[in-house]
Amino acid sequence: MHDDFDETSGPELSADEEALLKELPALTDVGQARRTFLGQTVAGGLGVFALMLLEQERAVGALAASPEALYAPGAALENPVRVSLKVNGAAKSLEVDSRMVLLDALRERLELTGTKKGCDQGQCGACTVLVDGRRVLSCLTLAATCEGKEVTTVEGLARGDELHPVQAAFIKYDGFQCGYCTPGQLCSAVGLLEEAKRGDVSHVTEDVTASTTRLTDDEIRERMSGNICRCGAYPGIVAAIQEAHSGRERARTWRFVEGEELARVREEVGADETV
Protein backbone atom coordinates (compact mmCIF):
# COMPACT_ATOMS: atom_id res chain seq x y z
CA MET A 1 0.00 0.00 0.00
CA HIS A 2 1.37 3.44 -0.96
CA ASP A 3 1.40 6.25 1.59
CA ASP A 4 -0.31 8.58 -0.88
CA PHE A 5 -3.24 6.17 -1.44
CA ASP A 6 -6.55 8.02 -1.57
CA GLU A 7 -9.52 5.71 -0.91
CA THR A 8 -11.99 8.17 -2.41
CA SER A 9 -10.20 8.34 -5.74
CA GLY A 10 -10.01 4.59 -6.43
CA PRO A 11 -9.25 3.05 -9.82
CA GLU A 12 -10.51 4.55 -13.02
CA LEU A 13 -14.00 3.58 -14.16
CA SER A 14 -14.35 1.22 -17.06
CA ALA A 15 -15.83 2.39 -20.34
CA ASP A 16 -19.17 0.72 -19.55
CA GLU A 17 -19.32 2.31 -16.10
CA GLU A 18 -18.56 5.76 -17.55
CA ALA A 19 -21.31 5.31 -20.12
CA LEU A 20 -23.78 4.28 -17.40
CA LEU A 21 -22.73 7.22 -15.26
CA LYS A 22 -23.44 9.65 -18.10
CA GLU A 23 -26.97 8.25 -18.38
CA LEU A 24 -27.65 9.16 -14.71
CA PRO A 25 -27.72 12.98 -14.54
CA ALA A 26 -28.23 12.98 -10.79
CA LEU A 27 -24.87 11.30 -10.33
CA THR A 28 -22.76 13.47 -12.66
CA ASP A 29 -21.49 15.59 -9.82
CA VAL A 30 -20.57 12.66 -7.61
CA GLY A 31 -17.11 12.13 -9.02
CA GLN A 32 -15.31 9.13 -10.36
CA ALA A 33 -14.95 7.11 -7.11
CA ARG A 34 -15.96 3.53 -7.78
CA ARG A 35 -17.16 2.99 -4.18
CA THR A 36 -19.44 6.03 -4.30
CA PHE A 37 -20.83 5.01 -7.66
CA LEU A 38 -21.61 1.45 -6.56
CA GLY A 39 -23.09 2.61 -3.25
CA GLN A 40 -25.56 4.92 -4.91
CA THR A 41 -26.42 2.27 -7.49
CA VAL A 42 -27.28 -0.20 -4.73
CA ALA A 43 -29.34 2.45 -2.92
CA GLY A 44 -31.28 3.14 -6.09
CA GLY A 45 -31.94 -0.57 -6.58
CA LEU A 46 -33.26 -0.90 -3.02
CA GLY A 47 -35.58 2.02 -3.62
CA VAL A 48 -37.02 0.38 -6.72
CA PHE A 49 -37.45 -2.88 -4.80
CA ALA A 50 -39.31 -1.08 -2.00
CA LEU A 51 -41.66 0.53 -4.51
CA MET A 52 -42.40 -2.88 -6.05
CA LEU A 53 -43.27 -4.33 -2.62
CA LEU A 54 -45.54 -1.37 -1.87
CA GLU A 55 -47.33 -1.84 -5.17
CA GLN A 56 -47.86 -5.54 -4.42
CA GLU A 57 -49.31 -4.73 -0.98
CA ARG A 58 -51.72 -2.27 -2.56
CA ALA A 59 -52.82 -4.89 -5.08
CA VAL A 60 -53.42 -7.49 -2.37
CA GLY A 61 -55.34 -4.96 -0.28
CA ALA A 62 -57.56 -4.08 -3.21
CA LEU A 63 -58.23 -7.78 -3.83
CA ALA A 64 -59.15 -8.40 -0.20
CA ALA A 65 -61.56 -5.46 -0.22
CA SER A 66 -63.30 -6.66 -3.37
CA PRO A 67 -66.54 -8.60 -2.71
CA GLU A 68 -65.87 -10.67 -5.83
CA ALA A 69 -62.52 -11.90 -4.51
CA LEU A 70 -62.11 -15.67 -4.62
CA TYR A 71 -59.88 -17.57 -2.23
CA ALA A 72 -58.56 -21.08 -2.47
CA PRO A 73 -60.21 -23.42 0.08
CA GLY A 74 -58.15 -24.72 2.97
CA ALA A 75 -56.55 -28.12 2.77
CA ALA A 76 -59.16 -30.84 3.18
CA LEU A 77 -58.78 -33.44 5.91
CA GLU A 78 -57.23 -36.60 4.56
CA ASN A 79 -58.81 -38.93 7.13
CA PRO A 80 -61.80 -37.09 8.61
CA VAL A 81 -63.44 -38.53 11.71
CA ARG A 82 -66.54 -37.18 13.44
CA VAL A 83 -66.11 -37.09 17.24
CA SER A 84 -68.86 -36.23 19.72
CA LEU A 85 -67.81 -35.67 23.30
CA LYS A 86 -68.33 -33.47 26.34
CA VAL A 87 -65.69 -30.91 27.21
CA ASN A 88 -66.02 -29.22 30.60
CA GLY A 89 -69.70 -30.17 30.66
CA ALA A 90 -70.54 -28.83 27.19
CA ALA A 91 -71.39 -31.12 24.28
CA LYS A 92 -68.98 -30.75 21.36
CA SER A 93 -68.95 -32.28 17.90
CA LEU A 94 -65.78 -32.07 15.86
CA GLU A 95 -64.57 -33.34 12.52
CA VAL A 96 -60.88 -33.98 12.93
CA ASP A 97 -58.10 -35.83 11.21
CA SER A 98 -57.99 -39.37 12.56
CA ARG A 99 -54.38 -38.74 13.58
CA MET A 100 -55.08 -35.54 15.55
CA VAL A 101 -54.27 -35.84 19.23
CA LEU A 102 -56.58 -34.55 21.95
CA LEU A 103 -54.13 -31.80 22.89
CA ASP A 104 -54.27 -30.23 19.43
CA ALA A 105 -58.05 -30.63 19.25
CA LEU A 106 -58.44 -28.77 22.55
CA ARG A 107 -56.03 -25.98 21.72
CA GLU A 108 -56.56 -25.47 17.98
CA ARG A 109 -60.17 -26.50 17.44
CA LEU A 110 -61.82 -25.62 20.76
CA GLU A 111 -59.46 -22.75 21.73
CA LEU A 112 -58.95 -24.17 25.23
CA THR A 113 -55.34 -23.06 25.52
CA GLY A 114 -55.04 -23.68 29.26
CA THR A 115 -53.76 -27.17 28.46
CA LYS A 116 -50.10 -26.68 27.57
CA LYS A 117 -47.92 -28.36 24.99
CA GLY A 118 -44.59 -29.07 26.62
CA CYS A 119 -42.43 -31.92 25.38
CA ASP A 120 -45.17 -33.30 23.07
CA GLN A 121 -43.77 -36.77 23.87
CA GLY A 122 -45.63 -37.71 27.04
CA GLN A 123 -42.70 -37.04 29.35
CA CYS A 124 -43.40 -33.71 31.09
CA GLY A 125 -47.09 -33.94 32.04
CA ALA A 126 -47.92 -30.33 31.10
CA CYS A 127 -50.74 -31.55 28.82
CA THR A 128 -52.50 -33.69 31.46
CA VAL A 129 -56.31 -33.58 31.34
CA LEU A 130 -59.07 -35.78 32.74
CA VAL A 131 -61.01 -38.19 30.53
CA ASP A 132 -63.98 -39.72 32.35
CA GLY A 133 -62.33 -38.69 35.60
CA ARG A 134 -58.99 -40.33 34.90
CA ARG A 135 -55.88 -38.38 34.05
CA VAL A 136 -54.38 -38.86 30.61
CA LEU A 137 -51.60 -37.29 28.60
CA SER A 138 -53.50 -35.45 25.89
CA CYS A 139 -50.44 -35.27 23.61
CA LEU A 140 -50.50 -39.08 23.36
CA THR A 141 -54.29 -39.52 23.25
CA LEU A 142 -55.99 -39.53 19.87
CA ALA A 143 -59.01 -37.26 19.77
CA ALA A 144 -60.93 -39.98 17.93
CA THR A 145 -60.66 -42.27 20.97
CA CYS A 146 -62.64 -39.77 23.08
CA GLU A 147 -65.93 -40.47 21.29
CA GLY A 148 -68.77 -40.28 23.83
CA LYS A 149 -66.40 -39.45 26.70
CA GLU A 150 -66.20 -36.49 29.06
CA VAL A 151 -63.05 -34.40 29.03
CA THR A 152 -62.16 -31.98 31.80
CA THR A 153 -59.41 -29.42 31.30
CA VAL A 154 -58.03 -26.86 33.73
CA GLU A 155 -60.71 -24.42 32.53
CA GLY A 156 -63.38 -26.79 33.84
CA LEU A 157 -62.09 -27.41 37.36
CA ALA A 158 -63.63 -24.32 38.99
CA ARG A 159 -67.36 -23.83 39.43
CA GLY A 160 -67.88 -20.26 38.35
CA ASP A 161 -65.99 -18.04 40.80
CA GLU A 162 -65.50 -20.93 43.24
CA LEU A 163 -62.09 -22.53 42.82
CA HIS A 164 -61.60 -26.26 43.03
CA PRO A 165 -60.09 -27.15 46.45
CA VAL A 166 -56.87 -28.17 44.70
CA GLN A 167 -56.65 -24.81 42.91
CA ALA A 168 -57.20 -22.93 46.17
CA ALA A 169 -54.56 -25.05 47.91
CA PHE A 170 -52.03 -24.41 45.12
CA ILE A 171 -52.46 -20.68 45.65
CA LYS A 172 -52.28 -21.04 49.42
CA TYR A 173 -49.05 -23.03 49.36
CA ASP A 174 -47.44 -21.31 46.37
CA GLY A 175 -47.47 -24.51 44.33
CA PHE A 176 -46.38 -22.77 41.15
CA GLN A 177 -43.89 -20.21 39.91
CA CYS A 178 -43.81 -19.60 36.15
CA GLY A 179 -47.14 -21.42 35.86
CA TYR A 180 -46.53 -23.23 32.58
CA CYS A 181 -46.81 -26.71 34.10
CA THR A 182 -49.57 -25.70 36.53
CA PRO A 183 -52.61 -26.74 34.40
CA GLY A 184 -51.21 -30.24 34.06
CA GLN A 185 -50.22 -30.33 37.73
CA LEU A 186 -53.75 -29.33 38.76
CA CYS A 187 -55.51 -31.87 36.56
CA SER A 188 -53.08 -34.56 37.64
CA ALA A 189 -53.65 -33.71 41.33
CA VAL A 190 -57.43 -33.87 40.93
CA GLY A 191 -57.12 -37.24 39.22
CA LEU A 192 -54.74 -38.41 41.95
CA LEU A 193 -57.30 -37.67 44.68
CA GLU A 194 -59.91 -39.75 42.85
CA GLU A 195 -57.40 -42.60 42.51
CA ALA A 196 -56.88 -42.55 46.28
CA LYS A 197 -60.64 -42.71 46.88
CA ARG A 198 -60.87 -45.74 44.59
CA GLY A 199 -58.00 -47.43 46.40
CA ASP A 200 -55.68 -47.48 43.38
CA VAL A 201 -52.20 -48.48 44.47
CA SER A 202 -48.79 -47.15 43.47
CA HIS A 203 -45.25 -48.47 43.72
CA VAL A 204 -44.93 -47.15 47.29
CA THR A 205 -48.32 -48.26 48.63
CA GLU A 206 -47.79 -50.31 51.78
CA ASP A 207 -51.25 -51.87 52.17
CA VAL A 208 -52.54 -52.92 48.76
CA THR A 209 -55.66 -54.52 50.28
CA ALA A 210 -57.14 -51.25 51.57
CA SER A 211 -60.29 -49.97 49.88
CA THR A 212 -58.95 -46.42 49.97
CA THR A 213 -55.40 -45.16 49.95
CA ARG A 214 -54.02 -42.78 52.58
CA LEU A 215 -51.83 -40.36 50.75
CA THR A 216 -48.52 -39.88 52.48
CA ASP A 217 -46.05 -37.36 51.12
CA ASP A 218 -44.17 -40.24 49.49
CA GLU A 219 -47.40 -41.43 47.86
CA ILE A 220 -48.03 -37.96 46.46
CA ARG A 221 -44.48 -37.62 45.17
CA GLU A 222 -44.67 -41.02 43.47
CA ARG A 223 -48.05 -40.39 41.90
CA MET A 224 -47.09 -36.88 40.71
CA SER A 225 -43.71 -37.97 39.37
CA GLY A 226 -44.96 -37.74 35.80
CA ASN A 227 -45.52 -33.98 36.11
CA ILE A 228 -42.28 -32.05 35.80
CA CYS A 229 -41.84 -28.56 37.30
CA ARG A 230 -38.67 -26.89 36.05
CA CYS A 231 -39.11 -24.11 38.63
CA GLY A 232 -38.85 -26.67 41.45
CA ALA A 233 -42.11 -25.85 43.26
CA TYR A 234 -42.47 -29.46 44.41
CA PRO A 235 -42.70 -28.80 48.21
CA GLY A 236 -45.62 -26.43 47.67
CA ILE A 237 -47.30 -28.88 45.30
CA VAL A 238 -47.04 -31.74 47.80
CA ALA A 239 -48.33 -29.55 50.64
CA ALA A 240 -51.27 -28.35 48.54
CA ILE A 241 -52.32 -31.86 47.54
CA GLN A 242 -51.90 -33.10 51.10
CA GLU A 243 -54.26 -30.45 52.48
CA ALA A 244 -56.80 -31.06 49.70
CA HIS A 245 -56.65 -34.75 50.59
CA SER A 246 -56.60 -34.70 54.38
CA GLY A 247 -58.02 -31.27 55.19
CA ARG A 248 -55.13 -30.65 57.57
CA GLU A 249 -53.27 -27.39 57.14
CA ARG A 250 -49.54 -27.65 56.61
CA ALA A 251 -46.90 -25.23 57.84
CA ARG A 252 -46.12 -22.47 55.38
CA THR A 253 -43.03 -20.33 55.03
CA TRP A 254 -45.00 -17.34 53.76
CA ARG A 255 -48.46 -15.81 53.94
CA PHE A 256 -50.54 -13.07 52.38
CA VAL A 257 -50.40 -9.68 54.11
CA GLU A 258 -53.84 -8.36 54.94
CA GLY A 259 -54.87 -4.83 54.01
CA GLU A 260 -54.91 -3.47 57.58
CA GLU A 261 -51.47 -4.89 58.32
CA LEU A 262 -50.08 -3.49 55.08
CA ALA A 263 -51.45 -0.02 55.92
CA ARG A 264 -49.87 -0.19 59.39
CA VAL A 265 -46.48 -1.16 57.96
CA ARG A 266 -46.65 1.71 55.49
CA GLU A 267 -47.32 4.16 58.32
CA GLU A 268 -44.36 2.80 60.27
CA VAL A 269 -41.85 3.10 57.43
CA GLY A 270 -43.18 6.44 56.26
CA ALA A 271 -45.40 7.61 53.46
CA ASP A 272 -42.45 8.38 51.17
CA GLU A 273 -41.16 4.81 51.13
CA THR A 274 -42.61 1.93 49.13
CA VAL A 275 -43.39 -1.39 50.77
Q: Can you describe this structure in just a few lines?
A:
The protein has a five-stranded mixed β-sheet, with helices on both faces. Helix content is 38%, strand content 10%.
What features would you describe in this structure?
The protein has helices at 15-22, 34-65, 102-109, 165-172, 182-198, 217-223, 234-246, 259-269; strands at 80-87, 90-97, 128-131, 134-137, 150-152. By secondary structure, the protein is an alpha+beta fold. The chain has three domains: 15-65, no CATH class; 70-156, Ubiquitin-like (UB roll) (Roll), CATH 3.10.20.30; 157-275, Orthogonal Bundle (DNA polymerase, domain 1). Strands 2-1-5-3-4 form a five-stranded mixed sheet, with helices on both faces. It is elongated. The mean pLDDT is 85.
Question: What Rg, in angstroms, do the CA atoms define?
Answer: 33 Å
Order of helices and strands: HHEEHEEEHHHHH
CATH architecture of the largest domain: Orthogonal Bundle
Q: Tell me the structural class.
A: alpha+beta
Strand order of the largest sheet: 2-1-5-3-4
Oligomeric organization of the protein chains: single chain
Number of domains: 3
- What distance lies between the first and last C-alpha atoms, to the nearest angstrom? 67 Å
Spatial shape: elongated
Largest sheet: 5 strands, mixed
Chain-wise SSE layout:
Blueprint lengths: L14 H8 L11 H32 L14 E8 L2 E8 L4 H8 L18 E4 L2 E4 L12 E3 L12 H8 L9 H17 L18 H7 L10 H13 L12 H11 L6
Parallel strand pairs: 1-5
Antiparallel strand pairs: 1-2, 3-4, 3-5
Helix pairs in contact: 4-7
